[in-house]
């Protein structure tokens, strides 16, 4: 969960989930649906010639990205490996005069992206999913290709056009259906525009990687790994594609096929597996405890000193914006975030301030939770019923939203029992919170996928997760001498 959000001066109305209350459901669910199979999310400046890596505009975007992705991840050995990798790729690129600055982001998200200035970003989550140097090299080459082809500038221009269409539609069309159709067509045009960019960047990037001596099929393997990771998430109840069908990236099967066709044009290159896995050993896996972390239904935040357990059946995800949870996706959801106010309204006053619309009359009730002043209320939209809690800690408000499609006394009681699990962490608990890490081990005689997966410090579907983490197909087995990744505490 990201650092506390500053909400500003409280003047009887807090920042709210604008529009119909149903919008709150999107705020509960949408961040959890951020793309898990993106290889790029360029953020618009305009031109690598006009904007240097150190330009004020680039630095503003850089700070924004660091804030959204948990800051930089410090690992000198890994940074040195990536720096050498980029040097090889630049020398083999169509524009070797361009310079790049690579930042490893301290995020478990599976993502990499580029600014047109030459700032490249890759999350430690994506690095940990790769199994050899050629896979990561192809990711970086793909992002370099976006810079070389000036895709970010083109995408920014198209995004502005879509925004103008949306604005003009809202102002000139009274028919909401017609307006929505016009906006949808504009978004579809943007999506198609971006898909063409992705295919082009794949082709350019694979060529760069191959000329640099890396195995061009690394692009195929890393795309396959991300597809399998997304499938694993989908099977666990979170489908990153369900609300993102107009995403800027093409369907992964298309990209895999396209990447394979491109890779066949080049000779096989080096995988650099040994040096890559050596640098990967010890990489933080999953959430960093500094930002809080999930263990099954439990969420612990050592920095802010609290713990909380979600209702039974919920699957939790810690994002840069909030803690999110779902139970039977589309039926129940929860969200926890923290805001800091300039003033100190009571929790009851905060719930009544307009933070969320349509609070049910007479439902606001004052409480004490774990020694903190708190309040609860209920709210109703056309399709959803909400149980809200606000817990005060000085000028901070801990905001809980529980949402359900079908309100029953048992469901409301489960929400109440969950909020009662909120507690302070002891100093010893906070100090002992350690991140999970990747450990690279050598397969010994007698080892099996199942035996190695059993050593993983993960909850649920260990075998499937071990296979995805190591790029091992469903029916394949490990062999003595293989080097594989496991996750340990």
Nearest-angstrom radius of gyration? 24 Å
Which structural class do the helices and strands define? alpha+beta
Segments where pLDDT lies below 50 for 5+ residues? 9-20, 29-52, 182-193, 236-249
Spatial gap, N to C terminus:
20 Å
Mean pLDDT value: 81
Strand content: 15-25%
When the domains are counted, the total is 3
Total of helices: 15
Helix content: 25-40%
Q: Major beta sheet, specifics?
A: 8 strands, mixed
Overall geometry comes to: globular
* Total beta strand runs: 18
What does this molecule look like?
By secondary structure, the chain is an alpha+beta fold. It has 3 domains: 5-16 and 288-431, 3-Layer(aba) Sandwich (Protein Transport Mog1p, Chain A); 35-281, no CATH class; 435-488, Membrane-bound Lytic Murein Transglycosylase D, Chain A. 39% of the residues lie in helices and 20% in strands. It has 15 helices and 18 strands. The strands form 4 sheets. Strands 1, 9, 10, 11, 12, 13, 14 and 15 form an 8-stranded mixed beta sheet that branches. Strands 6-7-8-16 form a 4-stranded antiparallel beta sheet, with no helix packed on it. Strand 3 (112-114) and strand 4 (119-123) form a beta hairpin. Helix 5 crosses helix 7 (176-211), helix 8 (218-235) packs antiparallel against helix 9 and helix 8 (218-235) packs antiparallel against helix 15 (462-470). It is globular. The two termini are 20 Å apart. The relative contact order is 0.13. Residues 9-20, 29-52, 182-193 and 236-249 have low confidence and may be disordered.
């Amino acid at each position: 969960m990201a650092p506390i959000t500053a909400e500003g001066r409280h003047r009887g109305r807090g920042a709210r989930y604008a529009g119909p209350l149903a919008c709150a459901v999107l705020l509960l669910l949408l961040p959890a649906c951020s793309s898990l199979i993106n290889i790029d999310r360029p953020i618009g400046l305009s031109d690598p010639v006009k904007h240097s890596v150190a330009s004020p505009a680039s630095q503003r975007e850089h700070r924004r990205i660091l804030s959204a992705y948990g800051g930089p991840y410090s690992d000198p050995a890994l940074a040195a490996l990536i720096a050498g990798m980029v040097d090889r790729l630049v020398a083999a690129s169509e524009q070797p005069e361009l310079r790049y600055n690579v930042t490893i982001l301290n995020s478990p998200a599976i993502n990499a992206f580029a600014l047109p200035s030459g700032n490249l970003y890759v999350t430690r989550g994506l690095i940990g999913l790769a199994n050899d140097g050629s896979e990561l090299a192809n990711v970086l080459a793909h992002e370099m290709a976006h810079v070389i082809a000036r895709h970010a500038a083109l995408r920014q221009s198209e995004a502005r056009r879509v925004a103008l269409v949306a604005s003009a539609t809202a102002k000139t069309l009274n028919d909401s259906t017609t307006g929505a159709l016009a906006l949808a067509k504009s978004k579809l045009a943007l999506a198609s525009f971006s898909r063409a960019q992705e295919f082009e960047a794949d082709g350019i990037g694979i060529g760069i990687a191959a000329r640099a001596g890396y195995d061009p099929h690394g692009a195929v393997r890393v795309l396959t790994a991300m597809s399998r990771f997304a499938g694993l998430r989908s099977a666990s109840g979170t489908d990153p594609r369900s609300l993102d069908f107009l995403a800027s990236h093409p369907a992964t099967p298309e990209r895999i096929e396209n990447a394979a066709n491109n890779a066949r044009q080049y000779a096989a290159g080096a995988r650099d597996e040994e040096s890559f896995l050596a640098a990967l050993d010890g990489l933080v896996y999953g959430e960093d405890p500094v930002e809080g972390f999930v263990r099954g239904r439990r969420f612990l935040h050592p920095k802010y000193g609290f713990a909380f357990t979600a209702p039974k059946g919920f699957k939790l995800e810690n994002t840069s914006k909030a803690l999110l949870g779902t139970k039977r996706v589309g039926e129940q959801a929860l969200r926890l975030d923290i805001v800091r106010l300039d003033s100190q309204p009571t929790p009851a006053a905060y719930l009544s301030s307009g933070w969320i619309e349509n609070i049910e009359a007479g439902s606001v009730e004052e409480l004490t939770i774990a020694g903190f002043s708190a309040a609860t209320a209920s709210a109703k939209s056309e399709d959803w019923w909400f149980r809200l809690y606000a817990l005060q800690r000085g000028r901070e408000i801990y905001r809980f939203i529980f949402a359900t499609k079908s309100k029953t006394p048992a469901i409301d009681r489960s929400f109440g029992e969950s909020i009662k699990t909120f507690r302070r962490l002891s100093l010893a608990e906070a100090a002992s919170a350690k991140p999970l890490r990747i450990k690279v081990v050598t397969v010994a005689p007698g080892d099996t996928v199942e035996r190695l997966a059993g050593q993983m410090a993960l909850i649920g579907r260990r075998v499937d997760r071990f296979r995805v983490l190591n790029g091992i197909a469903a029916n394949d087995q490990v062999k003595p001498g293989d080097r594989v990744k496991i996750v340990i505490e």
